[in-house]
Amino acid sequence: MTTVLITGANRGIGLEFTTQYLARGYRVIATCRDLTQAQPLKALRAGIADLMMVELDASRGESIAALPHALKGEAIDIFINNAGVYGPRDSYFGKVQAQPWLDVFQVNTIAPLLLTQALMENLADGKDRKLVYLTSKMGSIADNGGGGHYVYRSSKTALNSVVKSLAVDLAEQGFVAAVLHPGWVQTDMGGPNALIDTRTSVSGMLKVIDGLAAEQTGGFFNYDGSALPW
Ligand SMILES: NC(=O)c1ccc[n+]([C@@H]2O[C@H](COP(=O)([O-])OP(=O)(O)OC[C@H]3O[C@@H](n4cnc5c(N)ncnc54)[C@H](OP(=O)(O)O)[C@@H]3O)[C@@H](O)[C@H]2O)c1
What is the pTM assigned to this prediction? Predict the structure, then answer.
């Protein structure tokens, strides 16, 4: 059986990843910030034994450090770092402040690496050794024709850089690490005017993840599998 760990799994893209992997018969370890608020995940668990729910707040170092203990040595085949925040919507020139920017970096950029470090033993016991990080085309420097959005853009650009180093560092151990852009998706973050629904986004990304092999490590891919410019 394949085991997938998905962060930020109680709504949006993370909930859809959980739904689609469970439908395939995979075991899913779904993290959310607050189990008492996890009705969407609990509704999925009805009748499904292969869904484990664990609390994780990616903004808190002690929560990240506690995660491997909660997993009790369970092997993880695919890690999907999905949890993310947009931060202040008015992060335009003249409006940017340091603390909210640092808060976004903690969740979008620093936590993904700390989580990968914390889960290394579980991941090394897995057979697939796939590491997937949800980034955004807004983090592409080459694609930035609109400016602004300093906080979110820079957090995802920095995440891309982190994952590139991870891909190089872990290649010898057989890990494949990639950043995926989910498209502009109808979620709380993407808003109602976004171009695609979570089902379209996630079914595309599942195909990309299925096809990840050594040649793709360090890549930046759209949900439809096309390569994106850095
Ligand atoms: N939607 C888009 O158009 C779009 C486009 C490009 C990239 N993305 C990326 O795709 C990923 C998922 O986005 P989404 O649209 O599904 O966003 P969303 O609907 O806003 O959901 C965000 C998820 O991240 C979790 N999260 C936020 N802060 C967290 C923290 N400190 N610790 C742990 N979990 C935390 C949330 O948990 P709670 O429920 O507890 O708040 C929620 O599950 C993000 O990385 C985002 O940057 C989205």
Answer: 0.98
> Does residue 8 line the site of ligand 1, with CB under 6 A?
yes
Each residue's pLDDT tens digit, 48-77:
779 999 999 999 999 999 999 999 999 999
Would the CB of 33 count as within 6 Å of ligand 1?
A: yes
Q: Give 40 Cα–ligand 1 centroid separation in angstroms.
A: 15
Closest CA to 143 of 218, 227, 228, 205: 228
185 lines ligand 1 (CB under 6 A): yes
Architecture of the domain delimited by 3-222: 3-Layer(aba) Sandwich (3.40)
Sequence spans of domains, the chain: 3-222
pLDDT value for 49: 73
58 Cα nearest atom in ligand 1: 32
| Separation of CA 172 and ligand 1 centre (Å) | 31
DSSP symbols for 155-186: HHHHHHHHHHHHHHHHGGGT-EEEEEE--SBS
Give the position, in ligand 1's atom list, of the atom nearest the Cα of 84. Answer: 45
How far apart (Å, rounded) are the C-alpha atoms in residues 141 and 88? 20
